[in-house]
């Protein structure tokens, strides 16, 4: 049904999967540069079409890391693929990231329930996630 890859997708594939999954559009040229800065990438490709059906990545600088762009194509949801992606992400965090680093993510609901299964916790009230809205 699918194969797992750590090979970065094309920027067009990345943007298209984001849009297909209801995530915000990202500029293709900017996405191409951003993907190159990934600390870790996990992709799921359909065996028959080789199309990108799932992904997730970690961006970081050695001290701070962000789990980002976790997405499963709507036609493939409900099959546990989000758990497959997060298992690989968690394994990378546990084996390749310094234990003193901070690993965060910004969770949409109901995906927060998936992340909780992998040890992510809401940071409030000690801290509150905030986001700058570009104008």
Give a structural overview.
The protein is of the alpha+beta class and about 140 residues long. It has one domain (about 1-115): Gcn5-related N-acetyltransferase (GNAT) (Aminopeptidase). Helices cover about 30% and strands about 25% of the residues. It contains four helices and five strands; from the N terminus they run βααβββαβα. The chain has helices at about 10-20, 30-35, 80-95, 110-115, and strands spanning about 1-5, 40-45, 50-60, 65-70, 100-105. A five-stranded mixed beta sheet has the order 1-2-3-4-5. α1 (about 10-20) crosses α2 (about 30-35). The chain is globular and about 45 Å long. This is Acetyltransferase, GNAT family protein.
Looking at the structure, the CATH topology is: Aminopeptidase
Radius of gyration: 15 Å
CATH H-level superfamily: Gcn5-related N-acetyltransferase (GNAT)
Give the strand line-up of the largest sheet. Answer: 1-2-3-4-5
Specify the number of helices.
4
Shape: globular
Structural class: alpha+beta
- Level-1 CATH class name: Alpha Beta
Give the tags.
alpha+beta, 135 residues, transferase
Write the layout of secondary structure elements.
Blueprint: E1 2-5, H1 11-20, H2 28-36, E2 38-46, E3 52-60, E4 64-72, H3 81-96, E5 102-105, H4 112-116
Parallel strand pairs: 4-5
Antiparallel strand pairs: 1-2, 2-3, 3-4
Helix pairs in contact: 1-2
Summarize this structure briefly.
With about 140 residues, the protein is α+β, with helices and mostly antiparallel strands.
